[in-house]
Amino acid sequence: MSHKAYQKVQGTSEDPRSMEYRLFAQVTHALIGAGEKGRKDIAGLIDAIDWNRRLWTTLSGQCIDPDNKLPEAVRAQIISLALWVSRYSSEVVQQGASLEPLIDVNKSMMAGLAQRPSA
Length: 119
Hints:
Strand content: under 5%
Number of strands: 0
Order of helices and strands: HHHHH
Radius of gyration: 16 Å
Shape: globular
Structural class: mainly alpha
Largest sheet: none
Number of helices: 5
Distance between the termini: 36 Å
Number of domains: 1
Helix content: over 70%
């Protein structure tokens, strides 16, 4: 089976929580890599930050949806985090702030997604 076919099957059989975890892992890995290279690869840094910001923007957009099944308080927290990620990302690019807080927030989200809700 080709790699693309495998990815397609994986995407259709993966539950949404696992897909979100995997996406956070990929984005966080990109942020870590950008942090290791630093400003000598500014294009890579900007790409990783943009990818992370788009992930959080998408999550916050889903949380605004009235059909979202998450508790309202959790949705509000995700929206708040998304706003912070957007503001802080600008600080990283414009002022050279550390990527660590963005990485830490993503790792916290991954830890939450890794937990299985009780039945």
